[in-house]
Amino acid sequence: MFVTNASRGLPRHRSRYPAERYTRWALRALTILLVLAMLWLVLAFHLRGQWMFSLLFLVLGASLAIVFGKRELMSHRYIFPALAGMGVFVIFPLLYTIGISFSNYSSSNLLSEERVRAQFLDQTYQAEGQAFDFQLVREGNRTRLYLEAKGAGKLEGVRQLISEPLAHAEAGQPLAIEPVQASPPGEALNLREVIARRDTLEALTLVASDGTELKMAGLRSFAPMLPRFAENPDGSLTDRRDGTTLTPDHERGFFVTEDGERLTPGWPVAVGLDNYTKIFTDPDIRGPFLQIFVWTFVFAGLTVVFTLAVGFVLASLLQWEHLRGKALYRTLLILPYAVPAFISILIFKGMFNQNYGEINLILENLFGISPDWFTDPALARTMLLIVNTWLGYPYMLLLCMGLIQSIPRDLFEASAVDGGGPLTNLFRITLPLILKPLMPLLIAAFAFNFNNFVLIALLTEGSPDILGASTPAGTTDLLVSYTYRIAFQDAGQNFGLAAAIATLIFLLVVGLSVLNLRLSKVKV
């Protein structure tokens, strides 16, 4: 007869195993700590104006509290970490990239409008005609600054001022100055001693009792540093030097002068589909983009064809019954797959060197030619295909070997009875039986090489460049490396345009994935 907690008078939810109860308490405590950490991140990102990250951690924290707080959702706790990781590292970056593609986010439009305004308001300028000559004077073991106005300049109605001892200027704190009527007290230091303290003097900020700040303006002078811009009630800024008005342009994300000149830095604003239309309407972008777009498909397609051809031929030779040492040949042919790709690429980069590479030395000795592998567009693309074929054929070799071995021997015996030869077996038996299971893997290989950034970055870096392009674009660039160069190597770092191209790449890869699933007969 079974004895339950209820029959013993114990609550149903209380376990008779202390370890289980303590584990449950520890899990609850950990959940509470994680939720509190998420709420802290939400508040921190919200205060910094990063509403997308704030929303991300708010959703994470709420879902964590719900899943681990309700007993009805206990079965979902095991899959929650995987879903949370996918949301943080896959879905959120994707949505963030798509969001950036609809903005003018770039190196010149990087800060928020509030921070841009604060930067302008923090700018200062040196007041003309109000400079003060200075001397360093020593009074015992203390050193002070003695200031005397040039010309008719004055500060607080006096011409002479003296500072607190320089020792009071600790950790970059301002140094107070006060009027003085007498000549400089103490001994004036010579120019050599002034130069020796130049770094300290340049870091000094002298503050008068009325709040005027003086900074070092030369080797022998200090001058008042006045705020350059004044903020107006309508949000515009006035330049106090010449009275110029800066008006915020919320369509372009810049402060503009009365003449229409844009002043950097700016702030990100929504531009709609401008980045997408620019790709197809701006001739300086459309031409290189279409050229790179076509080359990306050609590169990925030819890579798959060449690697499959080499891998299939070698796999067929390794199946030859009269071949001796198959294990040795199989090991040697698969070795390139065991070497890290970046090492092989860098070795090939040295071998294809136009002046000292082994390949050009061999070609020059045999045929008297020395191809320009890195400066001629056609040869550079040929070099990429050669290297990528070397890197990819072992994968196709393994696939073809496995598929060929799975073909029943009875089919070849029946073909031999009917008088079929090697070519008949190849085109009537082997290829039809292995192409169908190979097709999804070939599409996956195509998608991988479609975004083969490492090969381009390490071997050619996209060179040679496409002439006349307004963005950094090369004849060997793929779409993914072209996007990287726009985002991180262009002087303007146009993240919005790069995000638009990245979104198009994502749509193409999604299409390839759907096609792969269809060919694999998986419902989507």
From TrEMBL:
GO terms for molecular function: ABC-type maltose transporter activity. SUPFAM superfamilies: MalF N-terminal region-like, MetI-like. Keywords: Cell inner membrane, Cell membrane, Membrane, Sugar transport, Transmembrane, Transmembrane helix, Transport. The keyword Cell membrane applies. Pfam families: BPD_transp_1 (PF00528), MalF_P2 (PF14785). It is a multi-pass membrane protein. The chain crosses the membrane at residues 25-45, 51-68, 80-102, 292-315, 327-348, 383-404, 438-459, 495-517. InterPro entries: MalF_N, MalF_P2, MalF_P2_sf, MetI-like, MetI-like_sf. GO terms for cellular component: maltose transport complex. Residues 293-516 form the ABC transmembrane type-1 domain. One of its GO terms (biological process) is maltodextrin transmembrane transport. It is found in: Cell inner membrane; Cell membrane. The keyword Cell inner membrane applies. PANTHER family: MALTOSE/MALTODEXTRIN TRANSPORT SYSTEM PERMEASE PROTEIN MALF (PTHR47314), MALTOSE_MALTODEXTRIN TRANSPORT SYSTEM PERMEASE PROTEIN MALF (PTHR47314:SF1). Part of the ABC transporter complex MalEFGK involved in maltose/maltodextrin import. Probably responsible for the translocation of the substrate across the membrane. Belongs to the binding-protein-dependent transport system permease family. MalFG subfamily. The complex is composed of two ATP-binding proteins (MalK), two transmembrane proteins (MalG and MalF) and a solute-binding protein (MalE). This is Maltose/maltodextrin transport system permease protein. It comes from Halomonas eurihalina.
